[in-house]
Design goal:
By secondary structure, the chain is of the alpha+beta class. Helices cover 33% and strands 24% of the residues. It has a domain at 23-83. It has helices spanning 2-9, 17-20, 61-82; strands at residues 27-32, 37-43, 52-59, 98-100.
Length: 102
């Protein structure tokens, strides 16, 4: 009976091959309203006058906070294994850092 309950509550996550390849992004633009966070992942290429949003993720505030905590945890584990991540742009704020959707 316990195994049946576990199987009913189990979530199977599928990763399609075209999604598994991933999308490269070197800029994230984050905005929020009272009910959602929107993260646009952008790829900026040298000497190109425009940059395209490659993916947009919309999260509830609760999921955004969980994502923040998961990223913090993973950065700590990464640095414990591989050493500190260099932040050559520490203190630099790009001209477009986010937007409010209120």
């Amino acid at each position: 009976m316990e195994n049946q309950l576990q199987n009913q509550n189990q979530l199977n996550i599928e990763l399609r091959p075209e999604v598994a390849e991933g999308v490269y992004s070197n800029l994230a633009i984050i905005g929020h309203s009272s009910s959602e966070f929107v993260i646009d992942f952008v790829r900026i290429m040298p000497n190109m006058p425009t940059a395209n949003v490659k993916s947009r993720i919309i999260l509830t505030p609760e999921h955004a906070k969980r994502l923040l905590q998961a990223l913090q945890d993973n950065v700590v584990r990464y640095e414990n294994q591989f050493g500190a991540i260099n932040s050559p742009t520490a203190g630099y704020v790009p001209p477009i850092i986010g937007f409010d959707r209120a």
